[in-house]
UniProtKB/TrEMBL annotation:
GO CC, any one term: nucleus
Gene Ontology MF annotations: ubiquitin protein ligase activity; zinc ion binding
Coiled coil: 437-479
Family membership noted in the UniProt record: Belongs to the RBR family. Ariadne subfamily.
Organism lineage: Eukaryota, Metazoa, Ecdysozoa, Arthropoda, Hexapoda
EC numbers, comma separated: 2.3.2.31
Official protein name in the record: RBR-type E3 ubiquitin transferase
Cited InterPro entries: Ariadne (IPR045840), BRcat_RBR_TRIAD1 (IPR047555), E3_UB_ligase_RBR (IPR031127), IBR_dom (IPR002867), Rcat_RBR_TRIAD1 (IPR047556), TRIAD_supradom (IPR044066), Znf_RING (IPR001841), Znf_RING/FYVE/PHD (IPR013083)
Highest taxon above the source species: Eukaryota
Length: 483
């Protein structure tokens, strides 16, 4: 497993213009180096996930072991074993059990017909191919287990066309309505061009990995790493090569506590309705006290008007002084209890209003993550100036970078609570979730406010706020992270 906090010296090598030193998706593996107790993370961390990062060679070896095991158990060819494994999630015990119960049914379900006695070849030395309608010598005809005979040239053309279309393990017989699959050795036997052989083997490897429940390709660009885990859970995996973080179960960006199906529905809805939301939700708002136009230039939602110094919430425009006790009302959407009795147009407006409520907060936290990365760049510049002025060392200021990473970690989780809440049914569980969501949001904004004013923030106070925010986040995930 990776470790999440970077070493203390890592930021010392960062220049003022190096934006790569703060990656909002590179903060999840939090480890307390001062904690000498050996604690089982699977019992304490709701996001704990055991996995390995494998190379292509290691994956090939893993797949070949399964092929050899099944081939020896059933006394079948490795190519046939690959077809069976690919169609049955690479479960050797399951295939062996089904094969012993009814070998014919298993083969048919895998689109492989049981071996048949070939039709006797007539005395004539020539046969007509049903595809090209050309006569060839009998020895130039080949067939799969379905016994459909075609000439070698047609098989070659068939395989070349299929492979160029990206098809490999799904290549079937050329006969009409015949779904019998061509095993690997039969295909390679008819591929002459080296580049097509290489392409076919590459495609089959990809298909085998995709069909294996314990394997996932890293979604990073041009990355060849394969992640392996014994359990296909919706947990965060990080590639050891390109550092791409993603959900192991669906391959998308990590989205806890929202599950894979819900986040797909949410992203689809956002793609359809985001323009409407962007039109309604502007980037600037008026100060609720002096009405001067204010642009949000930081990640914190605790805003202070530069003109009248009024403190208010960016999301609901409420007075921040009383906001601590009312934050639950800010993050919670208030359902209209009489909406079922309203007209169709009224229900449509209510549905849009509900969506905009959650979308605005989802998008706001996404923007805040980017703004806080910019804030950290400014903070790094200030700290560099202090170090040059002998006002402490880089080591003395590392706690601010740790705090910024933790803030991004908490805000990222909070961002994905809004799709979760949007699709939740009203009831006690949703009320509990919204309460914990509001508590987390309040602690995040307090932490963000303190980090943005780090020069005047006491270190002990900041570290205490970090501890509170992380506990709020962990508690929410323990109660609502369903995998």
């Amino acid at each position: 497993m990776e470790t999440d906090y970077q070493d203390a010296d890592s930021d010392m090598d960062c220049s003022d213009n190096d934006n790569e030193c703060f990656d909002v998706y590179d903060y999840y593996n939090v480890v307390d180096d001062n904690d000498m107790e050996q604690i089982d993370p699977s019992q304490t961390d709701p996001e704990h996930f055991a996995y390995d990062c494998l190379t292509e060679v290691e994956v090939e070896q893993l797949l070949n072991e399964s092929v050899a095991s099944l081939s020896n158990s059933l006394q079948i060819t490795p190519s046939l074993a690959k077809v069976l494994l690919h169609g049955h999630c690479w479960s050797v015990p399951n295939i062996v059990m089904k094969y012993r119960e009814n070998a014919s049914n298993l083969l048919i379900s895998s689109k492989i017909k049981p071996p048949v006695t070939p039709t006797p070849i007539p005395c004539s030395r020539y046969e007509t191919c049903p595809v090209c309608v050309t006569q060839h010598m009998s020895e130039k005809f080949y067939n799969l287990s379905c016994a459909h005979m075609f000439c070698k040239d047609c098989w070659i053309m068939h395989f070349e066309v299929q492979i160029n279309q990206g098809i490999s393990t799904a290549i079937s017989c050329m006969a009409k309505d015949c779904e019998v699959l061509a095993p690997e050795d039969f295909v390679l036997k008819h591929l002459i061009k080296p580049n097509l052989r290489e392409k076919y083997q590459q495609f089959t490897f990809q298909d085998h990995v995709k069909s294996h429940p314990q394997l996932r390709f890293c979604p990073g660009p041009n990355c060849q790493v394969v992640i392996r885990s014994n359990e296909a859970k919706a947990k965060r995996a990080v590639c050891s090569q390109c550092k791409t973080a993603f959900c192991f179960k669906c391959g998308m960006d990590y989205h806890a506590p929202t599950d894979c199906q819900i986040i797909k529905k949410w992203l689809t809805k956002c793609a359809d309705d985001s323009e409407t939301a962007n039109y309604i939700s502007a980037h600037t708002k008026d100060c609720p006290k002096c009405n001067i136009c204010i642009e949000k230039n930081g990640g914190c939602n605790h805003m202070q008007c530069y003109h009248c110094k009024h403190d208010f919430c960016w999301m609901c425009l409420g007075d921040w002084k009383s906001h601590g006790s009312e934050y639950y009302e800010c993050s919670r959407y208030k359902e209209n209890p009489n909406i079922a009795h309203e007209s169709v147009h009224a229900q449509a407006r209510e549905a849009l209003k509900k969506y905009l409520h959650y979308y605005e907060r989802w998008e706001n936290h996404s923007k805040s993550l980017k703004l806080e990365a910019e804030t950290l760049d400014k903070l790094r510049l200030k700290i560099n100036q202090k170090v040059m002025a002998n006002l402490g060392t880089w080591i003395d200021w590392q706690y601010l970078f740790v705090a910024a990473n933790l803030l991004a970690k908490c805000r990222y989780t909070l961002q994905y609570t809004y799709p979760y809440a949007y699709f939740m049914e009203p009831g006690p569980r949703k009320e509990l979730f919204e309460y914990q969501q509001a508590q987390l949001e309040a602690e995040i904004e307090n932490l963000s406010w303190k980090i943005e004013r780090a020069e005047t923030t006491d270190r002990g106070e900041l570290e205490n706020q970090m501890d509170i925010a992380e506990k709020r986040r962990t508690t929410l995930l323990k109660d609502f992270l369903d995998v």
